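Response to reviewer comment R2.3. The reviewers asked that we include at least one raw input/output pair. We reproduce the pair for Carbohydrate ABC transporter membrane protein 2 (CUT1 family) here without editing.
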Amino acid sequence: MSAVQAEPADAGSDRTRRRRRRSPLIDGVPRPGPIETVIKAIVLGTACLLVVLPFLGIISTSLATPEQVVRAGGFVLIPEAIDLSAYRSIFTGGVVTRALLVSVFVTGVGTLISLTLTAMLGWALSRRGSIGNRQLLLLVLVTLLFSPGIIPSYLVVQQLGLLDSLWALIIPTAVSAFNVIVVRAFFVGLPQEVMDSARIDGAGEWQTFRHMGLPLAKPVLAVVGLFYGVGYWNAFFNAMLYISDSSKWPLQLVLRTYVVDGNQIGAQALGTDTALPPQTSLQMAILVISIVPVLIVYPFLQRHFAKGMLTGAVKG
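Raw output as returned:
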């Protein structure tokens, strides 16, 4: 029996890890010193506070009691008690409630239409050799460089009879050339063997798109759908141009009217006869309502961002 006992198998790896801890380099980059670490922590902490504090103040002001809001001069960081009177005043069937329903309709229907058209157009442009493929792709690329302008767009919407119609908020922005290029790049990068196997089994172009292309494109479609949804939800400029009936205003236009422009929110606009909370509380409540839906949807689609966007963009 040997006098020298064999070392455990993981002894070498332990020594390697200890050397790495003592090493002044991390992957060839000098290890930051304690002063640099403290400075980075201070900078990151300050950046986080600058992002979180305004949002926390908006939520707190909307939930604070009217007395505390008046006493604080309009901005509350930590509410003394929770008061939902601002939200109750908003959801009484007035202009804010109607605007919220309009925004939900425009966002839901618009995103569905945009995703359908973008996926179909991206698939068609990815099929090399099809009739008019290069010409249509060139036409899509040209729209990235040249925009029609406000007056021509308004005249087109007017000639189509879409003024004061919710479709004026959907149809003019139904297809984004950038999103089409991203989806096309994703379809181009799909393995050709998969498409060939579907055709060998007798699938036509539509069946291949529906049963093979769409299931594989879920990550990129989720990302593009989020882009479309956020765009429809946050859009207000088209409503300013095409919608003159206040009952058809989306939530963002109401937000601009009563928060950005500082117009007073009266009891008649909210459809109530009761005393209203302070204007600041109502404005902050509208802000919260306009922000929260995006914050709720984003975490469910975040995991698709790296796979969808990188795959769709790099392979193009």
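Residues 312-316 have pLDDT under 50 and may be disordered. The first strand starts at residue 25 and ends at 26. Further pairs are available on request from the corresponding author.
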